[in-house]
Structure formats: structure tokens, C-alpha cells
Design brief:
The chain is mainly α. The chain has two domains: 71 residues, Winged helix-like DNA-binding domain superfamily/Winged helix DNA-binding domain (Arc Repressor Mutant, subunit A); 53 residues. It is built from five helices and four strands. A hairpin with a 5-residue loop joins strand 1 and strand 2. It is elongated, with a radius of gyration of 20 Å. It starts with 8 loop residues before the first helix and ends with a helix.
Length: 140
């Protein structure tokens, strides 16, 4: 697999597991990602090694490389050990905006149009981001 092709589905899940948990043995990856057999985990790790996104250390554990690759982690942000979809940030932002305008609407009906506009923007943005990230994870 060429790096330019990107990784999707279970291979992406394996990569994200390596980034989040650091060096892992084959069985740790299998259990952590929920793959049915070690050979399936080996296949996905092999694809990552072949493309240069992972390597084996001297103890035989798999380690993610190119962790900051924008191609793979596009749509995700790494905060410490956690990898979260950027969708999370949109959700928090629009929830705060919607809550503010909802509170203001209780006291003045002049904010109702802004509430509707903010809610429509929130729904459109969240669905767009959700579908984009979901398609990457399921490999469509």
C-alpha cells in the first residue's frame, strides 16, 4: 500500500490504537481494536509497516511512525494520549452558542432568529463532519 492511498477502516483503527497506546504487541493490538484473530491484526499491522506508518522495535512491538501525518489524522486532533474527532470541538462551540441564544430568547424574542440560524449551522456542520469521519472509519 502506498502512503498516498491513505488508510481506512480497520487499518486506520489499528493505527489510531498504536498512536494512542504507544508500542504494542500483536495480541494487544488484536484485543484493543477488537479484531477476531491475530492473523487479521497481523495483516493490518503489515499494511501499516509496508506503507511506513508503523515499524517494529527491537522487542517485536509495533510502534506508530509519522504520528503527525496530516493525511492519516485529518479530521482528528491529538490531545495528550487521546485522539478525538475535530467534530468534538464543533459540538462544544455550537452547544455554547445555542445555549446562549436559548437563554436570551427567554427574556427577549429578538434573539429567536439568531437561535434558529445558529441551530441550523450547528446541525449542518455536525452532520457534515460526522459523515466525513464515519466514512473514513468504515472504509467506504
Amino acid at each position: 500500500m502506498q502512503p498516498s492511498q491513505g488508510i481506512k477502516g480497520n487499518t486506520l483503527r489499528v493505527y489510531l490504537h498504536l498512536v494512542k497506546n504507544g508500542p504494542c504487541e500483536l495480541r494487544e493490538v488484536q484485543r484493543g481494536v477488537g479484531l477476531s484473530t491475530p492473523s487479521l491484526a497481523s495483516y493490518h499491522l503489515g499494511r501499516l509497516v509496508e506503507s511506513g506508518y508503523a515499524r517494529q522495535d527491537e522487542l517485536g512491538r509495533y510502534v506508530a511512525t509519522n504520528e503527525s501525518s496530516t493525511e492519516i489524522l485529518e479530521g482528528y486532533s491529538k490531545i495528550g494520549a487521546a485522539i478525538v474527532p475535530q467534530l468534538f470541538f464543533f459540538t462544544v462551540l455550537f452547544t455554547i452558542i445555542t445555549a446562549f441564544f436559548s437563554f436570551e430568547t427567554l427574556y427577549s424574542h429578538g434573539y429567536a432568529a439568531y437561535l434558529v440560524a445558529a441551530s441550523a449551522a450547528m446541525v449542518a456542520t455536525l452532520w457534515y463532519e460526522t459523515l466525513r469521519l464515519w466514512r473514513r472509519l468504515v472504509g467506504i
